[in-house]
Amino acid sequence: MSHTAHIRSHRKPRRSASTIAMRAGVAGGVLSTLAVAGASGSAVAAEPVTQTLELPTLTADLAAQVAQSADVTQQAAASYELQAERDAAAAKAAKQAKADLAEAKKKAAEEKKKAEEAARKAAAERASRNAERATLSASADTGSSEGSGSVSSSSSSSSSSSSSSATGSAAAVIAFVQAQVGDAYVSGGTGPNSWDCSGLVQAAFKQVNIDLPRVSQAQSTAGTQVGLDNLQPGDILYWGGAGSAYHVGVYVGDGMFVGAQNSSTGVVQAPLSYDPPSGAVRVL
Length: 284
What we know:
The protein is α+β, with helices and mostly antiparallel strands. 56% of the residues lie in helices and 12% in strands.
């Protein structure tokens, strides 16, 4: 027995049977309540299992998102590929443009070289023509006084007397052809700085409103046939047969003629002995 058992306040009261039974009943009720609550809680806890029906919807959304992401990735890849193709095309175009520019510069240099060469050649030909004209002029003085070839002394005398009397249309024709002496000969040329033989004759007579045919063959029959011993300034000289002439010129008097001879000489004034004509026609 405890040493404090005799003290009244330290004694534990004894519990009655009714109190114990009541407490047991309360405990049992509590346990029953807990059991019911537990069962109810289990039922409530089980309810979310029925919500798994929503999972397929979530799965479909996820699949759509994945598909959309794949489309975006594919579009990005296609865009990159297109950009790469454009870059490659631009690089190729730039390379081709560079090559074209180089080729153009090369051609320009070649053309410039050809032009310079042509200019030098033209200058040399002009110098040659000037020298030849000087020679022809000296020959003309001799030919006028002495005569040669098919031109007789009487015809030279007749020509000398008639040249000083050339007036009107004949004088205009002669002045025109003499003004072209030194110009270049070009086949098919009709002026103003290059001629062929019939182009020069046609242009000369056009100055006096006379329309001649374009070619030598037709010009050789365009007027009245005259003898070479009866020439007058302004007569058309021809080489070859009448109607089949291959060359024409203009008689300017004093036993001289002007004609676009060839590419080497150009337009010259020369004595008839330089290249004796076959015949002549008069249209003035």
